[in-house]
Design goal:
This protein is mainly alpha-helical. It has three helices and no strands.
């Protein structure tokens, strides 16, 4: 358990510099733009992130609701005899 925790912390520490890299052109374009374009960019990000989040949430809810669908006990009682008598 401790090794898993250490690996998780290490992964999170190493992933943060990678995620911080972005396109210099995009950054300078957004930084030099007016407030109207910044607002549109923020709205666009929210619009683009919403559908994938809803799809993933729907899949998780569906999987959770159907988690025991194939693990039900048989309705027919089992006997010791091969013939079922």
């Amino acid at each position: 358990m401790r090794a898993l925790l250490q690996k998780t912390v290490l992964l999170l520490l190493l992933a943060s510099p990678i995620a911080a890299q972005n396109c210099a052109l995009c950054y300078t374009q957004a930084a030099g733009s007016g407030s109207k374009l910044k607002s549109a960019l923020r709205s666009g990000i929210l619009i683009l992130i919403f559908p994938p989040m809803m799809i993933c949430t729907g899949l998780i809810v569906t999987a959770y609701k159907r988690r025991n669908r194939f693990h039900q006990d048989d309705a027919v009682p089992k006997n010791d005899s091969d013939l079922g008598w």
